[in-house]
Description:
Elements: H1 2-8, E1 15-20, H2 29-36, H3 38-52, E2 56-61, H4 69-81, E3 98-103, H5 113-120, E4 144-148, H6 149-161, H7 163-167, E5 177-184, E6 190-195, H8 200-206, E7 212-217, E8 223-225, E9 244-249, H9 254-269, H10 275-292, H11 298-310, H12 317-321, H13 324-332, H14 334-340, H15 353-364
Parallel strand pairs: 1-2, 1-4, 2-3, 5-9
Antiparallel strand pairs: 5-6, 7-8, 7-9
Helix pairs in contact: 3-6, 9-10, 10-11, 11-13, 13-14
Amino acid sequence: MKWKFTAAEKSAVKYVVCNADEGEPGTFKDRVILTEYPKMLMEGMAIAGYAVGATEGILYVRYEYKYLQEYLEKIIEGGRKKNYLGKNICGKEGFDFDIRIQFGAGSYVCGEESALIESAEGKRGEPRDRPPFPVESGYLEKPTIVNNVETLCSIVKIVNHGAPWYRSMGTKESSGTKVLSICGDCKYPGVYEIEWGFSVNDVIEMVGANEVQAVQVGGPSGNLVGPNEFNRTLSYTDLSTGGSIIIFNKQRDLIKDVVLNFMNFFIDESCGSCSTCRNIPVLLRQKLEKILNARGVQKDIEEMLEWSKVLKASRCGLGLTAGNPIVTSIKNFRSLYDKKIQHGKDYDSNFDMLNAVKESCDAVGRVPGIHSN
């Protein structure tokens, strides 16, 4: 659909941008593709350029992959020498397309296409208000398509083998294959290409995981699923994922080791543009820490669920899903929260007067005179 709209735009200048800003925790598949199949990626970008009428492609790569620059530049230069890039590609008059590499600055939010474009223009990486959409006004206010590494590589396979071949894999609603980065508590972590429709159980068996407590599907912004949902399938209609699968065994403290860690990540990576994304994750983390400190009550769990709904007013995917670690863990692992809260108590302010005045008393050598009724 992006290609269709971009191709229809009446502009002499259009751009193809490859999103290789792989910042989702637990994801490393694009790094492998950039290393092992860079020519396929360049070919996919050139095909995209031909389809929409673009003459320039930008390979936007996360800065942590800076060590790949010399290698990728050689691949691009080799394509130019063989006339796979440049002017009149493969003798096709008027088919001009070239690629340049641009590195990001390590911001997770730049995985969102309009924030990526802002960064590519040398601005602060934060999402744009839409409309207009990038297909209308993207990079340098010109029609722009932004696709990820895997999508552009899939285009090459479809061109080579045909659409019926591609649709023969996967499910009716989710055709083709999906590349997964699988890590965590398993015997065989790595990068796997599977057909859509694989179940979570299939993944667990494939990577040799035992005593699995939970599986994080889709990175921190996805779903933390438990054993009762391991029969669910990876697909656009069930468990959708950009490619990150993290497995946790029964020795993990899911709330402390996983949920709290993911909330810290979202707080650190927020661009701060939306008040919802800037404030709500911090409040959620405070509630979570209160529960972990054995001061939580039933109402704290309910409030976290309610406050997470406010995040739906955010304007980009980071803000929209920043509450998912808490929401999905409560949904699927409510018993873990119930074990950590105080029962039979409706309210706990989590305020400790002695602790609050300790630093000032130590500074002046005073013994706090606090009286309790």
